[in-house]
Specification:
This protein has 216 residues and is an alpha+beta fold. It has a single domain, classed as Alpha-Beta Complex (H-NOX domain), CATH 3.90.1520. 45% of the residues lie in helices and 14% in strands. It contains five helices and six strands; from the N terminus they run βαβαααββαββ. The strands form two sheets. It has a four-stranded antiparallel β-sheet with strand order 3-4-6-5, covered by helices on one side. A two-stranded antiparallel sheet has the order 1-2. The longest helix is centred in the middle third of the chain and has 33 residues. The protein is globular.
Amino acid sequence: MADQSAIISAHPSGSAYANRIARYFFLGLEEVMGTHGLLSTLEIAGLAQYYTALPPDNLARTVDFSVFSALNLALDEMYGPRGGRGMALRAGRAWLVKGLNSFGVMAGINDPAFRALPWEERVRLGLRALSLVFTHFTDQHVRLEESPQVFRFIIERSAMAWGRRAERPVCHPFVGLLQETCRWASNGRELAVRETECSAAGAAACLFVINKTPLG
């Protein structure tokens, strides 16, 4: 069964992100796509209100989940499922470096005392900090769990999947964001990240599994 989603920006979810976090995502998209690519994505997503001005740099929660879902779907429509996934992963990585890494508790990861910790502890604290950012500055609830082999990053009511129905997980920007968070916190180690359950595919929440063994 193909993804049966439609562009849904005209049908708000009633849940939102802080403007600043949304602004960083738009900047991440522009970083990987260029200004023309971003404008084309906005056109396909039906988000004309952002043609001339990105979300403001403040903490008001005004950017509805439907905006993220529409942008995520627009990438698939522009590039096809495989190309859209690749672009979404890159945008997710850029989301961190365009500002999330200096936001709230995430800023503490640059502290010299933090950098002196063992790399796995740095990853644990980095993922926990990211979960707190989303829990406190968006209407998503995020929690971090772990076993000896993996971390589990769990998002209830993912903005990227809002309103979508698909056979496979669709929250690719979050996968890229988690990849880059692990790389940044660990001073360059790449950890495998997979979304194994997704609300778009019928799960109760979106589950991202992060292997503790570095790649390579």
